[in-house]
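Narrative of activities, Objective 1.

The group set out to show that a structural description can be obtained from nothing but a protein's sequence at a throughput compatible with the screening campaign. Below is one input-output pair from the validation batch, recorded exactly as produced.
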Amino acid sequence: MKIAATVAFCLLAVVTSFAQTAVPRPSAAQAAPQPKFKAIWEPAPFDRDIDLNAVACAGPAVCWAAGDKSTILFTADGGTTWQVQLGGDTESTDDNLVNLFVLDARHAWAMTPRGKILGTSDGATWAELSTVSGTAQGVWFRTPQDGLEFDNPDSTSQSTVRRSTDGGRTWAAASRCGVDASVGGLPRKLQCRLFAADFVSPLIGFAGGSAGIDMRTALAKFGKTSDGGHTWMMSVLPDSERRIVDVKFWTENEGIVVMDRGEELFWTADGGSTWTRSARQRLWPSYYGSGDGQLIVGIGEGGGISYSVNGGRNFTSRPFELPARVRAVTFADAQHGYLVGEHAMVYRYRIVPIDYTSPGMIGAMAP
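Output recorded for this entry:
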């Protein structure tokens, strides 16, 4: 019995000693991994006082910006440096460029307010291709040769969809915009107008605009094509009272439409069969860019910014002060974005190491 008691005493002593010398558990704060990266907006301006009106990219590092004085800028290093490919003369009286479409690293198109279309097929040399109506809304190309443009002759007429099969040198009318809808419980065949398009493949594309009921009332109109724009299946957004001015899709099913320069935003997960109004703070007028749907950013023309990381279902708003007014924003992917504006303003969105610093940079929300 004494031997057993002695052994028990020794075991108790060992357990007690171990308990006293055990390493304490780290606190929750100590256990949490420290972030290694952060998202920022960083100034990357051009060095001449020329307003920039559009920006588009062929990838994270390869982008063009277009602006006043027939200016076209190019970067191959993600905005670190900008090369003048056209214009750039602050005293020039040449037409402004207001629309820009980039298909890939070699093919891009720009348009003036009067409908003059410029293009490049080597990524460097620009030439005048054609002139369409001054009411054209822009150009959208599926391939280097096959493109569309929407012509709206006035505020009430229906759009004419025109096609090019030679890279934008010539255009031919393909169809007129019309949609069957139910208004007040009665069937109506409405004329419609188109303002924007987006293709996720050479065959699958989407378009947005408005369908007029009378001189004062219009419904948001949405179109989908599965044959490269030859035919469109048209519909209207229920209970909508605004026109669609921008369309952004990242898959055949998922996308958003923007109403009246950011007045409202709707999202879909079924290719436009159903739509849901986004839960977001009003930011108007504003411009939107989408990084593969993983990050959607809306930027107010005069300040303010909102981020969505769930396909536009809701947004988080933050203060965002810039030195000039914004004119356009685009994202090449969820980690690389660009905004442009007055006085050659350019900011780039990037993910950088947590200890990175840069003059004038602004903290951002990461996807």
